[in-house]
Amino acid sequence: MTSEQRTEAILRPLAHRPSRRYYIVLALALLGLLWYAQAWAFQLEHGMVVLGIGDWGSGGGIPWGLYVGSFIWWVGIAHGGIIVSAAVRLFNLSTYKPVARIAELLTLIALSVAALYIVIHLGRPDRVVTSMLPAWPTTIRTSPLAWDVTVITLYFVLTATYLALTIRADISAVRSRLPRQLGPLYSLLLIGYTPEEHEKVERMAWWLALAVIILAPLFLHGGVIPWLFALLPGQPAWFGAAQGPQFLTIALSSALGSVIIVAYIFRRVYGWEDLLPDNVFSGLSRWLALFALLFLWLQLQKIITGISIAPESIYGATKSTIEEPLYWLAVGMVAAALAWFGLQMLNPSLFTVERTVAAATLPVIATLIEKFLFVIEGLMHPVFSLYRGVPGYYTPSWIELSSVIGAFSLVTLFFLVVSRVIPLIEVEVSHHEP
Amino acid sequence: MNSSIGDEGPEYQPLSADNVFDAAWEARARKALDVSGWDSGLAIAAARDALAVVAGDLSEDEFQARHHGAYLREFGVDLRPGGEGLSTPAADAPAGPAPLDPPAAAITGEDAAAGSTAPGRRDHAAVSRRTALGLAGGGIATVLVGDLIGFGAPGQAISVDDPTPAQDQGHAPAGEHTSSHRKVRMGMVMDLEKCDGCLMCVGACKQAYSLPDGVFWIYVLSFKEPDRPDDVNLLVRTCQHCVNAPCVKVCPTGARHRRDDGLVLTDYDVCFGCRYCQVACPYGVNYFGWDAPKKGAGFIGERKDERGKSVIGAPPRGVMGKCIFDPQRQDSPKHHGSTHCQMACPMGVIHFGDLNDPESEPNRYLRQRIADSGGKLSTFHLLDDLGTKPNVIYIGHQPSRHARPTDPPTRYEDWGMVDERRTVLEGPEPWFKRVFSR
Ligand code: SF4
């Protein structure tokens, strides 16, 4: 593949008029968004009473539900996505370079979805800025939710900067072949650009990647996000030091799975078999297998310590986890994916990209189920044993379920649009290749 | 959805002096009141009279007259509206709607008088009366609302100073103790051994703050221990107003805060309803504003405490609420050191005051109980090992890890209350269901 052929392939989504299929998907995504928009309007109009959640304790409800579960799931995808991209740069994993930008974009949109989940979860979303900002200097000392919002904001800025920096060389190189209507946007992205900045930008991007690789696993998805739950002594299913590693393995499993899925869709649609070759998928699936294994291992830790000679409250929480069929569905899906990837490694003739993608979908769905269960189970089995007379129950309402449709629609819409604005794969590399 | 208990219509069990205040009750009450040094005869008579009013056997005016006289003799207080006495402090002027109607003013006033004379020991009588009124009569429900929109309404006069324990000690009332040499820490001593589970405290609190169905800022749990299956134990659960409150720590807006006098409150103007406090509290004391109150059922009293923060009454839609230890009472020199639930309890279970003051009523009560028991009194903090440092001290049987809920002596339904809130949290039908069902 010559450099010119490669550039042509990368610019395919930008150079051609959208197909009919594109418009159909666009319409579906818009419809999905619209559907959730009216659902949220209904929630705003009538109050949170229209959701399935309720008061914990004598009220017999669960105050956090699908919204919070989805929030941590999307944050997980965001973190895993950027970890992939940062690792590519730091450790020079050139095989995965073609998916780096897709992973970064996934991070940006997944973070946005997570932030939106926080907003729709609030009883008074109109106060989100006015209530949080003035109190921030105080709340940042003790409130995990204040930590979360802070670190997620920081993280969003890092990722966006990273993307903006690394995209400049690309845009400048192929500027003449990009859609003319978007000229002002490209001019904005290229403010002050000189070809000599390349080396400096590379170094900045390297440092940003380093910041991300330290921040994301250690303090974000292995830190402030699990601490939201792990620091609460009243809920034995949440409390404890194991949540950090557990959250991290879940995040990385779901993120690698999502990167595989998104990359595959683009490969199919734009005929990018050469740009995103098979070895990218087999390589990513091997990493996914590793994190799926760690996921299962940590679940084992939790169950063994929770049912052997555990204190009563922990025992109760663990027991109900293992009595929950949905939990075993989630664990089973991860185990099935792991088994398939293992077989594939032993017998490479079994490998096809399609099978890999199908197997990678399992942990993505399984982790969403796991997150959902994690949130509500923590609240169902409190230390305060007298509330066992009113065990909380929760069924997501149609509005909460609609939010899942809305979130996926938003992500789809984002990729539909962004694929027509910037090159999804780095063009720049081609210049350095012989 | 308002749960003001009198509104429940046909399901409501009519009260009468015969079925509520039976001989057994009287014996228990007398015992409790004797401990407190209060005129138990007067207390019991007043409680009976209150029920007579509810049953329609006694007019409110007659009730007033009797009542005034008795209390005047007991306390030397003139409670007649417009009578002589101190004028109303500006801070206490009503900011809410219409002035109190006469019976409301009178009852509120008496209450205040009783409180002013002997906080803590006083209100058993005053309160069983007022609670009965509150619980039973929709028409008399204004009593407590009146109480909330302003202590010392115009035309109401109190003729004694307010020797609350805090002032005895030379302390300013809560909220003004910045210069005080010792930190005030309001809390409760809860004598579960005296509790008979009548739910009077629950009703008084709900009434006072217009709490919706299924919302219990004070809640009575009944439980059994496996090794003593015949004993029904009771646990009166308020907010524990913890020194080391998890809810305050986790709140990302600072809405949940601890006031100078130790009251843990939510600023309704700041809270954005993330419900983190609710999941962080091990005691399950938070009740969210899932819904706006039904027309005419919302809290209409003054929301602001003396610092000007909106912390009083059932929370508006979208923000969090819980037991508040009546900040408006603690702000008022006349009512400092008392709460609605405490005054409502006919058994003398609840003792409220400054736990940092060795001479406060709860501390004196606790000492007395310990002395009377020969030092063998069982006291505990709820879930002490979680490190929350609660400000409610319980006397009685501590629920073990094996304790299991059981049928209560008085069911919430008996008073027309909804126990499990989840059963009444129903939103309107979505439009598409309506369209399709046509
Ligand atoms: S619900 Fe309100 S008071 Fe509770 S933690 Fe959230 S912002 Fe704070």
Structure description:
The complex is a heterodimer of chains A (434) and B (438). Chain A is an all-alpha fold and 434 residues long. Chain A has a single domain, classed as Formate dehydrogenase/DMSO reductase domain (Formate dehydrogenase/DMSO reductase fold, Up-down Bundle), CATH 1.20.1630.10. Chain A is built from 15 helices and no strands. In chain A, α10 packs across α12 (325-346) and α10 runs parallel beside α13. The longest helix of chain A is centred in the middle third of the chain and has 33 residues, at 198-230. Chain A is globular, with a radius of gyration of 23 Å. Residues 430-434 of chain A have low confidence and may be disordered. Chain B has a domain at 186-244 and 326-435: Alpha-Beta Plaits, CATH 3.30.70. At the A-B interface, α5 and α6 of A face β2, α10, α11, β6 and β11 of B. Bound molecules: iron/sulfur cluster. Iron/sulfur cluster (SF4) binds next to α11 of chain B.
Query: What is the helix fraction of residues of chain A, given as a range?
Result: over 70%
* Whole-angstrom Rg of chain A: 23 Å
Oligomer: heterodimer
Number of strands of chain A: 0
Which small compounds were modeled alongside the protein?
Answer: iron/sulfur cluster
Concise overview:
With about 425 residues, chain A is mainly α. Chain A is built from 15 helices and no strands.
Structural descriptors:
heterodimer, A: 434 residues, mainly alpha, Formate dehydrogenase/DMSO reductase fold, 15 helices, disordered C terminus, B: 438 residues, alpha+beta, Alpha-Beta Plaits, four-stranded mixed β-sheet, three-stranded antiparallel β-sheet, 32% helix, binds iron/sulfur cluster
